[in-house]
């Protein structure tokens, strides 16, 4: 851009009505202009010994949970859930509680800086210079590429509008959790079975029987706090709801289930189809096309499941009034993953639950009226890497994601950065991608920021979750939105005015949690309650016409190769997930299934360990066709003998003192194979185990004496 866009021209390009400009001429409420003063300067609205509370949104993942932050004398001292927010209704996970450790983290990037790629020594620059660098990059819009995190927030909206007005490529959203949850695959399966690629909502709370194919909703799956609440409600029904978990490793969710079946990875689709055939024959005497050709006996054998167990589960489905079947990410992360997802959704259609209590629904549309926009698949990320290598990406701007850490090494993202002339990171912390960039222009921490986020799952109510600063910025950071507004010369005074331009249509909407006569009054309530949502559920009923008449092309997963000794199951740490390793509170929390802290471990069945001559804390080399890592052994009896598992979340080479050089990153072991939807087939990875002769004791809370009898051997 060589000159500033007028407000009229910009709003015309992005399709916003000119009437909005009239509304925005009014001043906002006084609360907008209150300055959150630091501890050293007493805020005028605080009193000694009294707390001030602010409603905002948790930024530790993309679920959109609401927070209420207690502050005293200008300092944030405690976070709790916002009881009004429909996603979490006052509850939080460990990451939400630990967000203060990000705010006060000593390793935050404190000033805008430039540096040589890979060098940890930063040379500070001023913000005017930083904005000038971004402005210069935007003058070549065809060479600009934004890479953002999973959250569909106000920054994503601004960047989308900006790219549209400039003629730049659309921004890309990506995150490791989206990969581990196979979100793209689920959306494409919904398109194939129900005709719409929407995000699906699984009404766990009202189901009386839930069959889960590895959906670990008590850990990290999609919206864990919301689904944990749903699970609790399911269990508290008059007739206690049942949960059956099918997955090769006992997760926290499986540990809470009434039954766990350790099926072989890659056979989930066959098992779902076999259940469909048994159910249909019992209920209707004949199976529809989607299930008629499945060999039930062969499916049970392929999965390592007793035929009697499969028949018993089908019997439970026939007797349930509100049965529900849900697919986890690992079940869909095979080359047959799209067909597996189709089989599971078709089974729900056969059960008759779509659009009914305890069934599946299309999630509500955003109250801002935006269409469905999913995150990028691994195939699309590979296409980005090819564009980077070809030199068509002149400037890469990264915010809210750490692709050098979160993408498999086999994709070649880090190497492709060498072909990009300018890389700009807006990271709050010096993560791996930030250190591989030319510039770091640090955004505020989430508790220092304004914003909103569309909530795409976890509630049946159409809503956006709002954010506001609860403290003054502690360092010389700047909102990325304000940086872009200044660099592009967009017609907004600041970030708040842009946010208000987006939420203005909500003032006129009816049926909301609150209403107001004008924007200033609405804005005050928006901050007070932490967002806006409709009172009533707005879930959509999927169209099941023909859903069970489409034949499925199901297989038993990938064929064996030279690395077929063990299936590798990588799962997101329920404590750290993809970005929690820089918070010591989270590092200190014992893993719920192993009690290990501060490290990475390899879970292996004790029978397999004995066969290989391995013991607890032995260091082994885990080798895939693409990479190798060294990790300590944890003998875990609740895993299939042909499967080994490693949690994802550690293994950083940067990201601050609490995360750096701790554990390994198992994503490095992945190849670049994708399923039919373009999602990474990470669960198809096969590895071999090599002894190193070394030993490294894991820090864990459990007593090895009591659990394993170590030290009690006869002499």
Q: Any descriptors?
A:
7-stranded mixed beta sheet, 6-stranded mixed barrel, alpha/beta, 17% strand, 26 helices
Weakly predicted, low-confidence segments: 16-31
Count of β-strands: 27
Mean pLDDT across the residues is 90
Structural class: alpha/beta
Spatial sequence of strands, sheet with the most strands: 5-4-16-15-14-6-7
Specify the helix fraction band.
25-40%
User: Can you tell me the overall shape?
Assistant: globular
N- and C-termini, Cα separation: 80 Å
- The radius of gyration computed from the alpha-carbon positions, rounded to a whole number of angstroms, is 26 Å
- Count of helices? 26
Major sheet size, sense and barrel closure: 7 strands, mixed
Strand content: 15-25%
Structure description:
It is built from 26 helices and 27 strands. By secondary structure, it is α/β, with parallel strands linked by helices. It has a seven-stranded mixed β-sheet. A six-stranded mixed beta barrel has the order 20-25-22-24-23-26. It has a four-stranded parallel β-sheet with strand order 11-10-9-12. The chain is globular and about 70 Å long. Residues 16-31 have low confidence and may be disordered.
Helix/strand layout:
Blueprint: H1 7-13, H2 19-23, H3 30-33, E1 52-57, E2 66-72, E3 75-81, H4 94-97, H5 99-103, E4 113-114, E5 123-124, H6 127-138, E6 144-148, H7 154-166, E7 172-173, H8 176-180, H9 183-194, E8 200-202, E9 209-213, H10 224-235, E10 242-246, H11 252-256, E11 259-261, H12 268-284, H13 296-303, H14 307-319, E12 323-327, H15 329-332, H16 337-351, E13 360-362, H17 378-390, E14 395-399, H18 403-406, H19 413-416, E15 422-425, H20 432-435, E16 439-440, E17 451-454, E18 463-467, H21 480-488, H22 495-503, H23 519-529, E19 531-533, E20 566-572, H24 584-588, E21 596-597, E22 601-604, H25 606-612, E23 618-623, E24 628-635, E25 643-648, E26 686-695, E27 699-700, H26 704-708
Parallel strand pairs: 6-7, 6-14, 9-10, 9-12, 10-11, 14-15, 15-16, 20-25, 22-24
Antiparallel strand pairs: 1-2, 2-3, 4-5, 4-16, 8-13, 17-18, 18-19, 20-26, 21-27, 22-25, 23-24, 23-26
Helix pairs in contact: 6-21, 7-21, 9-16, 12-13, 12-14, 12-16
């Amino acid at each position: 851009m060589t000159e500033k866009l007028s407000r009229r021209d910009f709003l015309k390009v992005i399709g916003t009505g000119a009437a909005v400009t009239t509304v925005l001429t009014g001043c906002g409420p006084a609360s907008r202009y209150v300055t959150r003063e630091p501890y050293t300067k007493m805020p005028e609205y605080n009193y000694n010994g009294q707390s001030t509370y602010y409603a905002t949104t948790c930024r530790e993942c993309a679920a959109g949970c609401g927070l209420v932050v207690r502050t005293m004398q200008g300092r944030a001292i405690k976070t709790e859930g916002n009881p009004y927010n429909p996603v979490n209704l006052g509850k939080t996970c460990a990451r939400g509680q630990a967000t203060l450790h990000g705010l006060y983290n000593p390793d935050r990037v404190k000033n805008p800086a430039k540096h040589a790629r890979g060098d940890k020594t930063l040379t500070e620059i001023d913000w005017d210079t930083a904005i000038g660098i971004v402005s210069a990059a935007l003058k070549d819009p065809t060479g600009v590429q934004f890479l953002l995190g999973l959250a569909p927030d106000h920054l994503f909206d601004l960047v989308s509008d900006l790219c549209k007005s400039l003629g730049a490529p659309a921004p890309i959203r990506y995150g490791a959790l989206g990969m581990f949850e196979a979100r793209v695959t689920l959306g494409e399966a919904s398109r194939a079975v129900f005709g719409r690629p929407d995000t699906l909502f699984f009404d766990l709370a009202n189901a009386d029987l839930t069959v889960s194919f590895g959906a670990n909703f008590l850990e990290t799956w999609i919206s864990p706090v919301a689904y944990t609440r749903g699970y609790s409600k399911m269990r508290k029904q008059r007739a206690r709801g049942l949960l059956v978990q099918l997955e090769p490793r006992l997760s926290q969710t499986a540990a809470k289930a009434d039954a766990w079946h350790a099926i072989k990875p890659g056979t989930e689709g066959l098992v779902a189809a076999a259940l469909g055939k048994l159910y249909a024959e019992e209920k209707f005497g004949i199976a529809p096309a989607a299930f008629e050709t499945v060999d039930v006996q062969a499916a049970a054998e392929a999965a390592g499941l007793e035929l009697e167990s499969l028949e018993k589960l089908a019997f439970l489905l026939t007797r349930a009034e509100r049965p529900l079947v849900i697919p986890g990410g690992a079940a869909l992360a095979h080359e047959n993953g799209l067909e597996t997802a189709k089989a599971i959704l078709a089974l729900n259609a056969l059960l008759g639950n779509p659009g009914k209590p305890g069934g599946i629904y299309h999630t509500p549309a955003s109250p801002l009226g935006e269409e469905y926009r999913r995150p990028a698949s691994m195939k699309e990320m590979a296409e980005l890497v090819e564009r980077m290598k070809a030199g068509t990406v002149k400037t890469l701007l990264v915010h809210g994601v750490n692709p050098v850490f979160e993408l498999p090494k086999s994709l070649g993202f880090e190497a492709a950065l060498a072909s990009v002339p300018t890389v700009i990171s807006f990271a709050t912390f010096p993560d791996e991608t930030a250190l591989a960039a030319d510039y770091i222009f640090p955004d505020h921490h989430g508790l220092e920021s304004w914003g909103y986020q569309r909530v795409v799952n976890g509630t049946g109510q159409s809503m956006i979750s709002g954010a506001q600063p609860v403290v003054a910025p502690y360092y010389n950071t700047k909102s990325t939105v304000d940086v872009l507004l200044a660099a592009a010369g967009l017609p907004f005074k600041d970030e708040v005015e842009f946010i208000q331009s987006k939420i203005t249509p909500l003032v006129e909407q009816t049926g909301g949690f609150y209403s107001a006569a004008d924007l200033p009054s609405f804005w005050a309530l928006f901050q007070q309650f932490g967002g806006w949502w409709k009172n009533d559920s707005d879930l959509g009923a999927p169209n099941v016409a023909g859903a069970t008449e489409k034949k499925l092309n199901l297989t038993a997963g990938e064929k064996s190769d030279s690395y077929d000794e063990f299936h590798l199951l990588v799962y997101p740490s329920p404590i750290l997930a993809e970005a929690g390793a820089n918070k010591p509170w989270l590092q200190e929390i014992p893993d719920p299934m192993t009690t290990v802290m501060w490290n990475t471990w390899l879970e292996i069945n004790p029978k397999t360990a004995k066969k290989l001559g391995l013991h607890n804390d032995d260091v082994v080399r885990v080798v895939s066709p693409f990479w190798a890592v060294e990790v300590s052994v944890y003998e875990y009896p609740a895993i299939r003998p042909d499967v080994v598992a490693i949690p994802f979340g550690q293994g950083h080479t940067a990201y601050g003192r609490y995360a750096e050089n701790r554990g390994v990153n198992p994503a490095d072991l992945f190849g670049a194979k994708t399923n039919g939807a373009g999602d990474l087939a990470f669960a198809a990875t096969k590895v071999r185990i090599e002894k190193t002769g070394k030993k490294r004791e894991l820090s864990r809370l459990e007593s090895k004496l009591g659990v394993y009898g170590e030290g009690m051997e006869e002499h």
